[in-house]
Design brief:
With 376 residues, the protein is mostly beta strands. The chain has 5 helices and 26 strands. The longest helix has 11 residues. The termini are far apart.
Amino acid sequence: MATLDSYISEVSYAGSGQSDFIEVVLPAGTDVTGYFLELYQEGGQDSYSVLLFPPLTATIAGNDDYVFSKDTVVNFPSAMGDGEGIALVDPNGSVLPFVSHGLGSFTAVDGAAAGLTSQYIGSATTKDTGLVTNDRGDTYEVTGTLTPGSVACFAEGTLIRTLDGYVPIERLRPGIMLPTWSAGLQELKLIRYHEMSYSAQTPDRQRLVLFPPKLFDCTGSNHPLILSSNHRIPLAVGTERRLLLFPAKTLVGWRGIRFMRGRRHMRWVHLGLPVHALIESGGLITESLLPGEMVERTLTGLERAAWAPVSKVPCLPLIHPQEARALIEKGVDLPHPNELPMRYPTGMTDSLPMFWLAHHAQGRADINDRTIRLHS
């Protein structure tokens, strides 16, 4: 099969219906008016649904990326079965790729793909795996998805600090420059979305972690910050104020931080910079996505090419959860901006977020004294 400019880049159908999705890639700037996906029945040849294109998810390396899911498409199927077919159709009615998974190839009997034989792309029936192409639709392979409990993820709706102020994370696009507290201005290279469902049986260590706004809020939104369980934030440890990165799950119970046991679904967002860095999310300093083998093996070829981190070194020392809990019992603190590895880029110092002001408002004398020493 010839390599395509427009193709189905990833299919996830082996999780819960809420987490199923289809990812489609088109050349950057393509007008999607008249484009659609046509779905074919499990184990059959009949068309059963037409999906119009959702809003653009991201533009990566000269390609527009669209994610079809229950959150983006009104009539997305409640659950995708093993053995279905998917046709990508252009405004002229031409079928670009026509693929099927799970049960082999078949010839469609109706719809836009009538008379065409599908390209079999394999089977991914193990929970939380999908099928992905790294060669623009020539071949597909099974891949594990980015699991929000294992990497740094922000909840959709999180406000991210940019040069123009706070912006909802879903409005960010690759190429924007983000100010960081550890590496100056850095270009946002990767944005990836991941759907995740939860149940009463989900272990706490994999659940969402809520940070109450009273702890950090300076955005005026009075919204909590929601992070994945292993998303790390910097804390100052001991009298020497040593900065370490603590997983969010280890902070549950500290200053009102808690697991969200009632939440059943979340659309997570991953942000990749050229280096691992400290960015500002909703007023709290947190980490960007840490490059590493676990993350890299889940990326598509396009995503690998677009991200290509120049460094995989953590911006601060990481800490094991067991050690983190022991240190928290002895006492940890949110860091003062002057204690972070590097100040904001020149020109932003007049509008520092000062996420620590709410922290200082607690009236703790030791914090106030330390602030005076830092500025003396």
